[in-house]
Amino acid sequence: MRPDNRTSPDESHKELQAMAYTDSLTGLGNRHRLREKVKHLAAERADDPAPFTVGLVNLDGFKPINDLFGTEAGDEILCQVAHRLKACVPDGATVTRHDGDEFAVVLPLICERVSAERMGQMIKDVLSAPYDLGDRNVRLSACLGFAVYPFAGAEFEDLQKSAETALYRSKRRGRGHITVYSSEIAQEMMRATQMEQALRHAIINDAVEVYFQPIVRLFDNRPVGFEALARWNDPDLGFVSPSVFVPLAEERGFIDLLSEALLRKAAEATLTWPRELFLSFNLSSAQLMDLRTTSNILAILASTGFDPHRLELEITETAVMTSAETAERIIQDLRDAGIRISLDDFGTGQSSLGRLRDFAFDKLKIDRAFVSSISKDRASEHIVKAIITMCEGLELQVVAEGIETEAEAKMLRALGCGMGQGYYFGKPVDAAATLRYLKQHFHEFTVADRMNA
Ligand code: C2E
Ligand code: CA
Ligand code: CA
């Protein structure tokens, strides 16, 4: 006979097994439970493969909260998430937690994209309500990726992989996105991965080029500087626009590699121009969130012998918005080193006049959208006029972007705009063509150059 307070070997085996399938923090099932559940459902439906859905849920911005408020607060949020998920999924569904802030839901009655999306939206809404941490509330959003059995995979591993691909796509798009796996999405992701590999290869082989577009003083059309613009012509993919490959490098986390290679090239080319010309270089939003940016840039300038006072960095408002404190610090450090900061694409996106007051900018670039409609529509003319007047008051220099015609240049001149840029003055061209352009437009340079020759 065994004493009452002892468990039988059978019972302890069961207990151990339960533990192996349970996430100790939240009490939900773990990865093993998910696998077991999916395999069980698939086996049940083997003869008549009625669809069901697996969803992965990943919190956005969980890590900074964990870092900032401590793991205890992080654990508390994970428990609240677990609770909310359990409460909102339909009867018969299973919720599990995996590593860190990733959860999964198995939804036996959801069998196609639209219902999966609807369920995703509901989960997203439930998770975005504030989390109570005792002395404070925090808000989080979540990304979701769904895979419908058996289309997205008839085996657990394939289904899981498809759900991960869908989740990865959501994450790449930013916060709060929902993706249901399909073959089109798989193809899209594959193309992006191929492009990523080709781009990494091009960076290593120094095959990404820099072109230069003149920025002129409007009253006499004299070039005062150039904007550096990245160009990539891949042997297989052909010409790829920087508005495609720059965001890709940002998403895949190697924008610093790309940007460093480009800045080095641009700085080297600028050294052959007359000294008074500045170089304007685009900084990506990811770089404004990384405190190493300043020292990286200064190191490149030092190694190429480039005077920081000749450099301007173009940044966008979205970049400043995403992580204001870090951005402010980086901007201040760069300005302390003598680099000027220009606010790019002004008037598009989430323009806020408050930011012009809070951040120290030197220059503002009026977006092409206003410039191209200035001669056709009175409203644009008034907006441009107001921006120019405001910049005068704030002692900001102004560049109008995307000037394509004499008429546009004339109007902007009349409105008192200091500088202009656009096809009318010159399209972006490579370093050699830029030198030829300078010889045509820059008398002193021609003389100095002849003297050097
Ligand atoms: P952006 O910084 O606004 O650059 C201006 C874009 O307008 C360039 O496009 C330029 O070629 C184009 N443009 C200039 N004048 C005219 C004009 O008169 N008419 C028209 N229709 N377009 C004009 P591009 O070179 O395709 O670059 C697109 C965007 O890619 C840039 O927009 C910038 O956001 C990004 N980008 C380009 N090079 C770099 C880079 O080296 N680093 C980073 N982070 N971003 C870059
Ligand atoms: Ca720019
Ligand atoms: Ca621009």
Characterize the structure shown:
By secondary structure, the chain is α/β, with parallel strands linked by helices. It has two domains: 18-181, Alpha-Beta Plaits; 193-452, EAL domain (TIM Barrel, Alpha-Beta Barrel), CATH 3.20.20.450. The protein is built from 18 helices and 16 strands. It has helices spanning 9-20, 31-44, 62-69, 71-88, 113-127, 156-173, 183-204, 242-251, 255-270, 293-304, 317-322, 324-336, 353-358, 368-373, 378-393, 406-414, 431-441, 443-452; strands at residues 52-60, 94-97, 102-107, 131-132, 137-138, 141-149, 178-180, 209-217, 222-234, 238-240, 278-282, 311-315, 340-346, 363-366, 397-400, 419-421. It starts with 8 loop residues before the first helix and ends with a helix. It binds ligand C2E and calcium ion (2 copies).
Task: Give the arrangement of secondary structure elements.
Elements: H1 9-20, H2 31-44, E1 52-60, H3 62-69, H4 71-88, E2 94-97, E3 102-107, H5 113-127, E4 131-132, E5 137-138, E6 141-149, H6 156-173, E7 178-180, H7 183-204, E8 209-217, E9 222-234, E10 238-240, H8 242-251, H9 255-270, E11 278-282, H10 293-304, E12 311-315, H11 317-322, H12 324-336, E13 340-346, H13 353-358, E14 363-366, H14 368-373, H15 378-393, E15 397-400, H16 406-414, E16 419-421, H17 431-441, H18 443-452
Parallel strand pairs: 6-7, 9-11, 11-12, 12-13, 13-14, 14-15, 15-16
Antiparallel strand pairs: 1-3, 1-6, 2-3, 4-5, 8-9, 8-16, 9-10
Bound molecules: ligand C2E and calcium ion (2 copies).
